[in-house]
Amino acid sequence: MRVEVKNSSFSGHRIDHLRLSDPSTACSLKRNSDSTYVIADVPLNACGTQMEEDNENLIFKNEITTVDNSRDLITRKHLVEVKFKCQYSKHGNVSLGFIAHRENITVWEKGLGTFTYQFEFYPDDKFRTKIDPSSYPLEYDVGSRIYMKIKASSQLSTTDLSVESCRAAPYNNPNNLPTYSIIEDGCAVDSTVQIHSSHQKQFKFSMEAFKFIGLHDQVYINCLVLMCEAGAPKERCSQRCINSPRSGGRLGKREAVTQTARHLISQGPLRLRRSAERTESPVVNVDLNLVFIAGCLLAAVGMICGVVVYKTRVSRLDLYELKEEV
To answer: Does the 2-89 domain belong in CATH 2.60.40.3210?
Structure first.
């Protein structure tokens, strides 16, 4: 709570003789007051503030009072008291909004100018039209293929894009665990990754959708990228995959000549549908009339069988009696 009272309201009293309910130094009124106003910045849970409540509100109360000595605990004089309170309703509406789709990232590098990175998802391997940003978060079935493209633009035409690594995480913060490696050192480490094209300022790739084990229904894709001077043999962009068993071993660190720092770009979230959401239990619609007819037929067959058995027994009994008479 913040309270401002004109000094003239405390005529004849110095600021040294004014205090809140709690006289401790941390609650001193000298801290913010000036020659015109006595100003009190009062915490809701300190400086002697008391809380009351009714059916609708929480009420916080305190007061500024005059004393002869700030150390006094009691008085028998008539004091000047300025009581104040703040009232908060117990009921209210709150809302939280966020933008799921990530916008382009623009960076500036000394000697290389300005770069803009675009990370988008596409519906198929044609990579013609990106998925509408208003559709985010995107929904995928586990196992379906996700198509992604990273594109860079710069003021210099003689620059190349390099995608160092890409990792997936169930949270917006890539430093939180768990994370899953998709690309490392320019090499695909997930067995489902397909590199559709990688040249100059574009990198197109895809992979099968997956979900993290546990109560994680969404995935963010985070990639480290950099730009290099085109054609420079010692630049990272010219090395491509440098740490893959297929490359014949790990290559040593190359000397950086003209390349940017590594920049983190991300996109998501992707929402992975659970099996129960994508596969409904088969429902058999049974016609009750057919059930009734079938039941009647079974009953009729049972009755006929009973009559045949009864007649057979009667016939055998008649034959037995005839034999006895003969």
So the answer is: yes
Q: Which residue has the higher pLDDT, 61 or 19?
A: 61
pLDDT of 239-253, one tens digit each? 667 754 443 333 333
Provide the 10 A C-beta neighbour count for residue 205.
21
Are the CB atoms for 256 and 203 separated by under 8 Å? no
Q: Where in the chain is the domain with CATH 2.60.40.4100?
A: 105-278
- Give me the pLDDT at residue 260, please: 81
**Ranges of CATH 2.60.40.3210 domains, the chain:** 2-89
Calpha distance 168→174 (Å, rounded): 8
Strands (E), the chain: 2-6, 18-19, 37-41, 50-53, 57-66, 81-89, 105-109, 113-122, 138-141, 145-154, 159-169, 180-184, 187-188, 194-199, 202-208, 218-229, 263-273
Q: State the CATH architecture for 105-278.
A: Sandwich (2.60)
Query: Cα–Cα distances in Å, from 108 out to 70, 255, 300?
Result: 59, 22, 89
pLDDT tens digit string along 154-170?
Answer: 877 778 888 999 999 98
